[in-house]
Amino acid sequence: MRKLFNGLVVGLALALSAGASAHQLKSALTKMLFNQRSGNVEIMHRFYIHDAEHALKQLFKTNADLISDQDAQALFAHYVEQRFFISNQETLIPLNLVGYEIEGKFLWVYQETPIDEAITSLDIRNNALREIWTTQVNTVNIEGIGDIKTLTFDGNTESLQVTLHP
Predict the structure, then answer these.
(1) What sign has the CA pseudo-torsion 24, 103, 33, 110?
(2) Which has fewest Cβ within 10 Å: 68, 80, 93, 110?
(3) Which helix (H) or strand (E) element contains residue 112?
(4) pTM, full prediction
């Protein structure tokens, strides 16, 4: 019986430590949706609140509580605006900040720009949090123009290109 109890204690300890360290991989997800109904490219960035709060502390020396502090949410959203860019042949495409919100354990930041049908490819930069953590991985999924296209920003990847029309 004692071996069973010890085994349960060890198993519980392992499970708790795995849960506590479950968010060791620094990652964020962005969805770029080419929405033909609205005529806009809708950009939705999803960050872990935990990561965003640590970033605010490191970058702006503030102990922000993103769940309850609208000013901190706005500060992080503006930070994202300065780290995510799309361009066409070196011409920067202006993005409008639509808003931001907390949903569960995530902070969402929303941007948009009108769809330009003449553009056939985009250069994308997604460097949010990458100056803080070298292991930060930012994934961008591009939807609404055929098959989903996925770009992964990790390591030294600064900019990636995506073809919009076959």
Answers:
(1) negative
(2) 68
(3) strand 106-114
(4) 0.85
